[in-house]
Amino acid sequence: RLLGSLLKTVNDTKFNSAVFLLTGIPGQEVIHLWISIPFCLMYVISIIGNSVILFLIKTDPTLHEPMYIFLSMLAITDLGLLIATMPTILGIYLFNSREISFNACFTQLFFIQSLQCIESSILLLMAFDRFIAICNPLRYASILTLPRIAKMGLVCVLRGITTIFPLPLLLKRFQYCGDNVLSHSYCAHQEVMKLMACSDIRVNSIYGLSLSLLTVGLDSLLIFLSYVMILKTVLSITSHMKCLRALNTCVSHLCAVLLFYTPMTGLSVIHRLREDSSPLLKILLGYIYILVPPLINPIVYSVKSKHLHARISRAFCDGLDHRNSLGVAN
Question: How confident is the model over 53-67, as pLDDT tens digits?
Answer without folding.
Answer: 999 999 888 888 999
